[in-house]
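Quick entry between incubations.
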Amino acid sequence: METEITDRGARPVPTLASIAERVGVSVNTVSRALRAPNTVRPELRRRINAAMEELNYVPNRLAGGLSGTRSDIVGVVVTSLYYSEFASIIDTLQSALLESGLQVMLANTRYNADQELKLVRSILSWRPAAIAIIGVDHPPKVVELLKASAIPIIEMWDTDGEVIDTAVGFDHTRVGAAQADHLIARGYRRIAFIGSVRENDRRAQKRLNGLEAAAAVAGLPQVLKHTAQQGGSPALGERLAFELIEGHPEIDAIACNSDVVAFGVLRALKTLGKRVPDDIGVIAFGDNEAAGCVTPPLTTVRPDRERIGKLTAEAILARINGAEPCTTIVEWELVARESTHKKNA
Amino acid sequence: METEITDRGARPVPTLASIAERVGVSVNTVSRALRAPNTVRPELRRRINAAMEELNYVPNRLAGGLSGTRSDIVGVVVTSLYYSEFASIIDTLQSALLESGLQVMLANTRYNADQELKLVRSILSWRPAAIAIIGVDHPPKVVELLKASAIPIIEMWDTDGEVIDTAVGFDHTRVGAAQADHLIARGYRRIAFIGSVRENDRRAQKRLNGLEAAAAVAGLPQVLKHTAQQGGSPALGERLAFELIEGHPEIDAIACNSDVVAFGVLRALKTLGKRVPDDIGVIAFGDNEAAGCVTPPLTTVRPDRERIGKLTAEAILARINGAEPCTTIVEWELVARESTHKKNA
DNA sequence: TGGCATAAAGTTAACGGTAACGCAACGCTC
DNA sequence: GAGCGTTGCGTTACCGTTAACTTTATGCCA
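Done. Structure below.
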């Protein structure tokens, strides 16, 4: 029998060599037709492109990255993917990078420091062109690795602290202060703080610090804190609000770590018969898409995520092209809605 | 002068060869100490590990992928990153894959077919171990590329159509039918559909089809459709609802393509003085985190995103290890809340 | 003690590209 | 028409790792 078990449709993937052979040129010429088309005769270029099209050639970027100087990968390390917290940053960042041929490699630490080290190591093993990472507070070992990697590191979202290289974000302490100032201006006096404040969520802690400090400066009684380690959700907000009001019925304003938590707080207050904003004011942080659609519409702080994503992409490209590191503060906005609009103030 | 411009801190990144030289063994032995530790003498292994620790060695997976058979990359192609639509699928998927040492490479098509082709090509150029992609309806060229790649392809979210390899999701037509059935059971008769239905969002179209078909079967008047091509948002829902009610005040139920759109619809109806659920019932799809927190709480369909993410990860691993392709239907749930709870029915 | 399986390490050759260099062929100038 | 720069392509040498062999040391049994 002559018939053998031949290629069962699993043809070997075409390489530059396949193309070269078919066209009758050297491998390097094919490579050049891709990287620097105008160094190849138009007619030859056409034939090469036709062959690529025909064989469905897809370049092997692992090989390209190993051989060349760049790897075209940008590592993106976030602390959470739930709820729109960072999704639109990633969205904008990804789209902007794509235009420059950079691919996003994603990692999610879930606010876990050990995980963060593991993930950063893992991402570094792909020899990325740059890394974008949430926050400026990282375990020492992570900082050491990132610094030693000698690639551009863009820290996003938070700018308050020791920046490794370049940062794009804002000062969360000021956000907390602004929340307090707003509540005070609206006539609230007994402020409480509710939310998920995980050990590694330094941003949440900073906002809380800012809130407390501003309240203290204004001579208000100490801010009551009722927090949990688990992730934020309406259910969490609801539970924490019930517990808080039961123990401290004198509270007249609640600042929430996130809109999602505030949604649950609003529901709890409604159940308890507390009127918002007249009995209790509620302010939050994040500008979730539903913030203006709950009852009453939620006063919150809107960080400009898309701008952060876009500026991060620009910073990455700039740094790759040799620009100096720098820190960019991105504006945020306190969106005053009905949940803090006390009528009898 | 003897001093030259020496390495200014930019030490070359350590390679297996650096470690090998320092320990005094061959490169391959170091490689083995990593990949198959028990083929190396414990004492030697210890010295190798120590050297790696000391030099802060990070393996080069580009080289590993090029040389070896696997590349440890899983391409994940989604159609959107905004609002929690797919975020928690990615979250779960990423975490599950990480445990097996697989890294997620992310791409977002933004419901653009040209973009989808470009992105799939781009991802394939990293020679991924598998690809997970949203939907079963792709441009022919994309299907051709994916099939030719001979790697496991997991299509997520939708299962209704021609599956390339393996799918994990549900039938969106049935979701639409269930929405109609629910409205009918609750006593609504004149149903309208509102939402963002982009040309490439076949899932939205399927849900709409299911809704229309079920309404027709029940002998209801034809479903009024008022849609837009732009992305869904509360603002869009609000505008569409205003326009719809103005032209068709007889409408007594609105099915929305997504919760986010429904939030805007609820706001518009409130402005118009229409009572929900008594004058008009509202049902949506997605189970956004705020769905239970708006007024009235929104009846919606809750797909089990985390389960889809988890099952997708499992399917990827199974397929990599040689299991047969298969399609898994993931249950969803119609969460009946107040927005469709007509009192006088 | 010789023979032979086994364990532990070394040797060599890819993997698929890129970059530096080399070398013809061509057109231009004087 | 000799000299010279330019254009267009081929040669060669890696990039860092893995995989398939080969070699050497070790133990075991007859």
